[in-house]
Amino acid sequence: MVDIDGNRLNARLEAFAAIGGTVKGGVNRQALTDGDRQARQLLAELALARGFTVSQDPMANLFIRRAGRNDTLAPVVIGSHLDSQPAGGRFDGALGTLSAFEVLESLEDAGIETERPVVVVSWTNEEGCRFAPGCMGSMAFAAGEIPPDWQGKLATDGASLVDELKATIKSLPPAQMISLGFPIHAYIEVHIEQGPALEANDIPIGVVGGIQGTRWLDVVIRGQTAHAGTTGLAYRRDPLRALTAALSGLYETIMPDDTDARFTVGRISVEPGSVNAIPDVARCTVDMRHPDPMRLDEIEQRVLSSIAKEAKRQGCEAEMSRSFDMASCTFSTDLQAAIEQAAMVRGLKSTPMLSGAFHDALFVNRVAPAAMIFVPCRDGLSHNEAEHVEPDYAVAGCAVLAEATLATSRMTLI
Amino acid sequence: MVDIDGNRLNARLEAFAAIGGTVKGGVNRQALTDGDRQARQLLAELALARGFTVSQDPMANLFIRRAGRNDTLAPVVIGSHLDSQPAGGRFDGALGTLSAFEVLESLEDAGIETERPVVVVSWTNEEGCRFAPGCMGSMAFAAGEIPPDWQGKLATDGASLVDELKATIKSLPPAQMISLGFPIHAYIEVHIEQGPALEANDIPIGVVGGIQGTRWLDVVIRGQTAHAGTTGLAYRRDPLRALTAALSGLYETIMPDDTDARFTVGRISVEPGSVNAIPDVARCTVDMRHPDPMRLDEIEQRVLSSIAKEAKRQGCEAEMSRSFDMASCTFSTDLQAAIEQAAMVRGLKSTPMLSGAFHDALFVNRVAPAAMIFVPCRDGLSHNEAEHVEPDYAVAGCAVLAEATLATSRMTLI
Question: Residue range A228-246: average pLDDT?
Fold first, then answer.
């Protein structure tokens, strides 16, 4: 067992929440802004004070290294991110990064020598709100290069990615520069669930088996506008009638038939948008998710064919295109077992679960065994200034991470 | 039979279409603008040249009077309006006004003395787009007063109704001022159908039996926003799922079950409007119409209870309020019979029908027997610069109006 210091962890969470803190108790610490740089600086200072090695790569991913007994072996990497949504919470990312740092300090406090080096990471721009897409740091790390088409990339506020990376790297002079990508023995990330399941079942630890695949569709149905009062049914080509018929059927089947499936319509609109005019255009987005790629394909097919059928039935034409497609990932079963075992050692209830949201672990998983530990957040609320994690749950996640890190450092992973 | 001059009518339609004419062949002649005043001036000039009496009332309703044999009797009033939508067509309103004027000229040309005086009217602001509501002129005429709350009324462009009425009245010095409201023996209005039924069935004359009642609802359903990926079905309170379930059921029943019913959703939106967020608010408008007030009540009840039920099923709350309520009207059966008879005399096919849109006749019908004659418009298109009426159909409507006016002048109406 590794004794972690729960008070220190919760005090650190407080301290980092003050950087970019909002009046409502959340944080605005978007990627590569001054706030993000201050958070990186604080973490680096704390690390250097403990004698750890601090380094960064060309994507400004930040690494804090504690040597292992066999220091040439690939490290166990633990961490998450420090950037936030513009009106974000204080736990999304910060909890995983600071829990990992607490593990490093606890190992140091207890004088425990790990077989392998342990590296804490804070990945750059997980959120993807200032610069799209999200998970840029881990994505480039896994690819071993910065994608060439990111050269001209601009932020929502007009800033250049290249310039902001340079300035961020420059703002951390004590960090050694290393090149992008290195061998990783195992990657474990603590994160808040961002959903309601753990809290609702009073389970402190989620052992994340993988991340759902996600696919987005843009749907446009074209009909004909006409006067609401003068146009009888035979003369109507109403695209909204077609869309609601398709959607209501899909709502009644996709999720009710399969608890792993997700089906969400987050945007809907019609044109011309007049109370007394039949619309000529109806639009919506569809967000579909499933851990099984075959089932995701089936769901997409069902959505496409249902909308096409209902559009035709109303004399309308449907255009549908994918606007986003992210394959699912399955995490290392060895690491999942290590996490489950760690929870047991700590006397904490755990449950296997899937992640509905993307995380840096999805990209790291492409080049190394990876897994995640989820902890409950109040009301499943995230990307919200009211995001909250009970201190006991934060400590629980950190403790499980500590045990799992120690065990993994000794494990041979297949 | 009254011989009308079809060429003169179509030439007049051309001439008036040039006032406020748009490059796409439509008109922008909104109520009480310079264009509207020019059209009134032209009509008054033509009337004075024929020796008719021109007068206007405090709502700037314009009247052109041809004396009858028994000139103290209440007149037969025929006409429509000269104002248009901002991107309107050249026939909506103008066809009815200029057909009525053609009837007056034809009676004069033929030296036919009518039993009663015949008055051509052009009502002020039927469209209601610059100043709301529509049908202001006929509404005030029927009420016998200008509603006190119109005193401070402003146009969409900021102009004051009171000022614009004054300026419009002043722009027509040869017209006598008369007070608002006078006894009417019968009112007949020619108008384009603004729907597709007559054209589709190749019937030149619609005998309008009444105007549907219309009721508008504003619907708001409140649920809870959450992450599209992390939130399982049991934790969702999705207001759009509730709304599509209710609407798809209503689309499948209200109009299919009753050919006189109209059910239209012209606006729909959700908040926060993010692809990967379950909405917390879904909104829509509902436009319901039916000629039978009892059936309209039933339809409204069905809409309210269906939305409430589906909202409850999804753990959401629905708020619904009426934003508009216009009672249906039934036109004089004597006048309908006169119009049907007139079509027969002219050898024109006619069909009884209802109007889905409001017209000035709805308000005149409150104080005098009224009815309407519809003629086909291409593709049912109206409130559109591409609005078109075949010259033969325009002539047909005018000819039927002429016969019906002559007959009505002699009739005793119950």
Answer: 95
Packing angle between helix A391-410 and helix A6-17, nearest 10 degrees? 110
Structure confidence at residue B288 (pLDDT): 97
State the ipTM, two decimals.
0.81
Which residues in chain A are closer than 8 Å to B235, comparing Cβ atoms? 195-197, 200, 380
Domain boundary among A309, A326, A343: A326
- For the segment A95-106, the average pLDDT, to the nearest whole number, is 98
The C-alpha atoms of residue A363 and residue A354 are separated, in whole angstroms, by 16
Alpha helices, DSSP H only, in B287-332? Answer: 293-313
Q: pLDDT at position B414, please?
A: 58
Structure tokens at B16: 């008036």
The interface residues of chain B toward chain A in range 1-40, judged by CB-CB distance below 8 A, are none
Residues A177 and A279 in one domain: no
Whether B201 has its CB under 8 Å from any CB of chain A: the answer is no
Whether chain B has a CB inside 8 Å of the CB on A201: the answer is: no
- In chain B, whose CA is at the least distance from the CA of A233? B255
Same-domain status, B88 and B203: yes
Q: Answer yes or no: do A229 and A203 share one domain.
A: no
* Closest Cβ opposite residue A276 in set B266, B276, B279: B266
Q: How far is A333 from chain B (nearest CA, A)?
A: 21
Neighbour-count burial of B140, counting CB atoms closer than 10 A to its CB (0-12 exposed, 13-18 middle, 19+ buried): buried
Separation in Å, CA of A9 to nearest CA in chain B: 26
Question: Considering only residues 220 to 249 of chain B, which have any Cβ-Cβ distance to chain A shorter than 8 Å?
Answer: 226-233, 235-236, 238, 240-241, 243-245, 247-249
Mean pLDDT of A7-26: 96
Please name the member of A196, A249, A276 whose beta carbon is closest to the beta carbon of B287.
A276
pLDDT for B272 equals 87
CATH of the domain at A287: 3.30.70.360
Q: Do A287 and B270 touch (CB under 8 A)?
A: no
Mean pLDDT over B230-257 rounds to 96
Minimum-distance CB partner of B255 among A197, A233, A279: A233
> CA A189 to CA A201: how far, in whole Å?
22
Chains A and B form CB pairs within 8 A to the count of 197
Chain A residues close to B289, C-beta within 8 Å: 228-229
Q: Are B229 and A214 inside 8 Å of each other by CB?
A: yes
**Secondary structure of residue A177 in the 3-state scheme:** strand
Q: Tell me the residue type at B317.
A: E
Total number of domains constituting chain A: 2
Residue B163 lies in a domain: yes
pLDDT of residue B276: 87
DSSP string, A107-128: HHHHTPPPSS-EEEEEES-SS-
pLDDT at A44 over 80: yes
HSE toward the beta carbon, residue B256, CA cutoff 13 A: 8
Judge contact between A60 and A41, C-beta under 8 A. Answer: no
Burial string for A188-208 (b: 16+ CB within 10 Å, else e) reads: bbbbbbbbbbbbeeebbbbbb
| Per-residue model confidence as pLDDT tens digits over B44-90 | 999 999 999 999 999 999 999 999 999 999 999 999 999 999 889 99
pLDDT interval class at A122 (50, 70, 90): very high
Name the residue among A195, A243, A268 with its Cβ closest to that of B231.
A195
Dig out the tokens for B233 from the structure.
């079905």
Domain contains B1: no
Residue finishing a domain among A286, A305, A326: A326
Instruction: Give B289-347 pLDDT, tens digit per residue.
Output: 999 999 999 999 999 999 999 999 999 999 999 988 989 999 999 999 999 999 999 99
CATH number at residue A171: 3.40.630.10
Question: Domain range for residue B245?
Answer: 213-326
Is the pLDDT higher at A35 or at A276?
A: A35
Tell me the three state secondary structure of residue B166: helix
Please tell me what DSSP assigns to residue A237.
B
A230–B195 CB contact, under 8 Å:
yes
